[in-house]
């Protein structure tokens, strides 16, 4: 029964706890037992507070017994990304510089999950300062893919994705600048949503006006992601790009058919990214599912010219602003890719950033025009399959070599530059059993639409039900 609880959708678990069919303590103990058994091999959760979680679960059960109102995530265990500040629990950012850092208070996303009734279990592994889409660091080591030990779980929310896939927690959250929610979701056969900038306000943040990095939900099902988004989303007056829409409508039931939906499909983002043919083969076989659900599907792609420059310049500028001074003071305290990105930012001129912002504006206008003709765009989430954990990052795909560590992530980074919401859902498996992610991109602010499309596809295919075989 305990393992069954650990693999059920969060939506079902929330109903069981609210109905007092399962206690919050029983649910937590089932997950703690699974963490004890499976996490040593996966290395997904790097900080665990079992006693604190048990106390919170007991308080949650007492609250229900007293008949007091409870939140939509009441009693659900959750693990927080180790770049998200947790009051009274260490937050390391995957860096030796912060091995003993214990924030005084929760940051906004963590606080909203707690307020909704979630039970904090611990922290999930990340690459150093969330830089890169492969989860490893010198503090805790690498996170392994639950579907095949020895392969990457993706990143930077790799610990979160692996924990979800392995049933260590029913919910987790992450962040995404260049694919950090989508990439690990694809590698681990779970669901990750890069939200519209401002949909989930980030506070504190060093540059509150930036729209490149966002926070968002991860789960084993699209409905679980929608449920979590319903409490993460909503305005905050301290966040200048915060959207005014409330979060609760995201929890409404999702459709299972797509009659009349206009879908564009691109296997390589208009010829701009090389993709492993094994990924393309799996995803091409899924297009008929959308037609059977009532949608029309055409091969097309928005004009993404300059998206590389936009993402590269704005990312480098953010790295210089965030890490430049520290890197110059103590270069050996940072991995080489962070030093490189900060150095690239230091070389930028005001004119460089200005040109990137002009290109950013034109890119946005072209994308808005594209989504007047289509409702969503389908594309591969990743260009590569999960690779060995010893490899820092892939240097080529399908015979095309890359100039830097970001090259293999461009199926996500080009989309990040558009400002569009993008959902990665399980898209099938290769012949030898590795997960493939399907990226569903919507018009700006159409987070609900990509969830609807993802849910209908998920229900029709059942790819997300194929769980890893673990001890």
Automatic annotation (TrEMBL):
Pfam families per UniProt: Amidase
Annotated GO MF terms: catalytic activity
Cited InterPro entries: Amidase, Amidase_CS, Amidase_dom, AS_sf
Boundaries of every Amidase domain copy: 26-451
Superkingdom as given in the UniProt entry: Bacteria
UniProt name for this protein: Amidase
Species the sequence originates in: Modestobacter roseus
